[in-house]
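Hi support team,

I'm filing this because I wasn't sure whether my run with pyridoxal-5'-phosphate finished correctly. The job status page said complete, but I'd like someone to confirm that the output block is well-formed before I use it downstream. Pasting the exact inputs I used:
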Amino acid sequence: MIADKLAQVTARIASACAWASRPVESVTLLAVSKTFDAAAVRAALAAGATRFGENYVQEGVAKIEALADLREQIEWHLIGPMQSNKTRLVAEHFDWVHSVDRLQVAERLSAQRPERLPPLQVCLQINVSGEATKSGFAPAAARDAALAVSRLPRLRLRGLMAIPEPALGFAAQRVPHRVLHELFETLRHDGFALDTLSAGMSEDLEAAIAEGSTLVRVGSAIFGERPSRPTLGARPG
Ligand SMILES: *Cc1c(COP(=O)(O)O)cnc(C)c1O
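And here is everything the job wrote out:
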């Protein structure tokens, strides 16, 4: 079941890459396992997924600990917002954080990243649709944030992430992804060594890939529908 769905998602990524004349290796799949249990992660790993995304800090840490035997085989990514008092747990357990949405969080993650671990790989979350309820830096604030974060010793700034407002249809879905991609290219032009554009989910991964995404975060298309869907990106965990 999970293996079939994973294969379907991999095929969607391949055809979106072909459509956009991009090499298929230019897009990485992050399997978003939030709300699904450790057994589902094991099944997806057996089917070939190696990168997993979690939204809620405590749920993610519990899963990482339950799957400690597979720690070397899995790259764990936090993709949801965190309260300041959760940064130590994040710094101690995750490999990546996509949801750096304020400088205080970045500073704490750097200070709390254990010396025995490599630097934490991070993306700045950009509030690309300008939604009041959504976390993230305004596009106009991204450059200063990138400068500050890139100077933190225990973080490595890899790129940008966004969760655009849901839109219907390929053309409408492309618009916010294009804005994000342009910001990404501007920062690269300014000298930031960014290689990760974290954009696209189950509903809009084709539009994101058409606009330069290098990492798609896919949950329901792999694991099935989640029981409830809290507003994405709005809930601290
Ligand atoms: C849940 C979630 C996803 C995956 O969403 P699907 O629609 O299930 O693919 C991707 N990114 C973030 C930040 C999420 O919270």
